[in-house]
Amino acid sequence: MQDDSLPIWLPRLAMHGGPRFLQIADALQAALADGALKPGDRLPPQRQLAAQLDVDLTTITRAYDEAKRRNLLEGRGARGTYVAAPKVELSSILDLSMNTPPPPAGVDFDDMLKQGLSQVLMRADSELLMTYHLAGGSDSDRQAGAKWLEPMFGRLDAQQVVVCPGAQAAIAALILALTAPGDIILAEPSSYPGLRAAASQFGRRLIAVEADQHGMLPEMLEQACRQHQPALVYLNPTLQNPTATTMPERRRKQLASIAKRYKVRIIEDDPYWLLADAPPPPIATLAPEQVYYISTLSKCLTPGLRVAFVLIRDLQERERFLVALRSFALMVAPLTAALATQWILDGSAAGLMGGVRNEARLRHRMARDILAGRYSGAGDGLHIWLELPAYWNSSQLARAADSEGIAVTPAEAFATANDSVNAIRICLGSIKDRARLQAGLQRLSHLLARRPESFSAAVV
Q1: What pLDDT, on a 0 to 100 scale, did the predictor assign at position 91?
Q2: What is the pLDDT at residue 2?
Q3: d(C-alpha 307, C-alpha 294), whole Å
Q4: Closest by Cα among 102, 152, 135 to 294
Q5: Which pLDDT band holds residue 30 (cuts at 50, 70, 90)?
């Protein structure tokens, strides 16, 4: 039974209102917003509040910890716990440049992390988690990778899955394993900058193949294959980075057919497939022996895991890939690989990814409302490719935005050809708080509406 003498700010706990500690933290936040609580107010001792609410002490401790994490409360030692003064935001930068998953509403990530690590430490030998491992992942890690890839491919032989320390490492190892210095790699005119960095570092030549609103043009790929005899084609066909284009199935079939005909391999970098709304089958399903498929957890779950899965069907080529990978990245960190495996196999990863997908779609709706006619996204994924009015060029707009406390990425950062389109990439996940994201998008919208002549940076 709950006590009738509850503090006025605290509602009665609902049976189906979610975790009780979150209900209490949410009530604290709401009371601050409506003035029922004010900075400096003293909160009841934890044991007293636990007795009033008829919950255990741990629930109250977690509620107060969550409220402190939100900067709502502060502890003052023996004097007790008090409502904190508003936190002064010293950094005015609103980062729309980093492509990371948004924090999903209703998912207690801290608790998920603690529970996952607890399960890992309970089931695994801690010494094994802190020692060297062969590259490619343990049997359990590869089985988790096969399960992660099931929505794209159905049931897979786990031995065909290689576990890597992130997609960038996978791309670099594939370039080392499948090409030689001076070889040519074909890509779309705007592509992932990490590809360009790896190709340049290894002495490979990157050549752009013309694309349209559906991705790389088949006739231009065929022409480039005849002209350049490329060693590799790099494609990011689902919610492409940076253009957010999803290549239709017919185009995927055409490109796969050309790659088979010219015996050129494809790296299919597909980090956003699981976030997309009804995406076409991967190209790797159309040319299984021709395509090396990469799926990273960084865009669907969290970059901190540093885990990606690579599907390589040929045993000899898997070994070549592992030799290349070991030359610069001996292994995935065993602890984070074990955590990723735990989350995938116990269903936590699917729950987190569902939350990320829903949050991303909410943010796209916000961007569509604020950017109005300029928004051209598909409504899913983590980013928008915003073509600019003629009176702005992308580098100029990026500098102007930076002076107003907004970070965006200009088209030049993604260019594989000398000419780049006049656009910027806007990432919707890197700002944790939705209200701050809204403020950043509104500020950017106002900037886009002004001509550069009316913009003048402060001189100090």
Answers
A1: 54
A2: 47
A3: 11
A4: 152
A5: confident
Number of domains making up the chain: 3
The DSSP line for 310-349 is: EE---HHHHHHHHHHHHTT-----HHHHHHHHHHHHHTHH
Reported as a single tens digit per residue, the pLDDT across 154-163 is 999 999 999 9
Same-domain pairing of 33 and 142:
no
Please identify, among 346, 376, 403, the residue that sits at the C-terminal boundary of a domain: 346
Are residues 193 and 279 both part of a single domain?
A: yes
Verdict on whether the full-model pTM lies above 0.85: no
Of all helices (H) and strands (E), which one includes residue 436? helix 434-449
Residue 157 one-letter amino acid: D
Q: What domain range includes position 273?
A: 124-346
Residue with tokens 């529970």: 115
For residue 261, give the amino acid letter: R
The answer to the question of residue 306 being in a domain is yes
User: How far is residue 227's CA from residue 205's CA, in Å, rounded to a whole number?
Assistant: 14
pLDDT tens readout for residues 331-384 = 999 999 999 999 999 999 999 999 999 999 999 999 999 998 888 888 899 999
In a domain, 460, yes or no: no
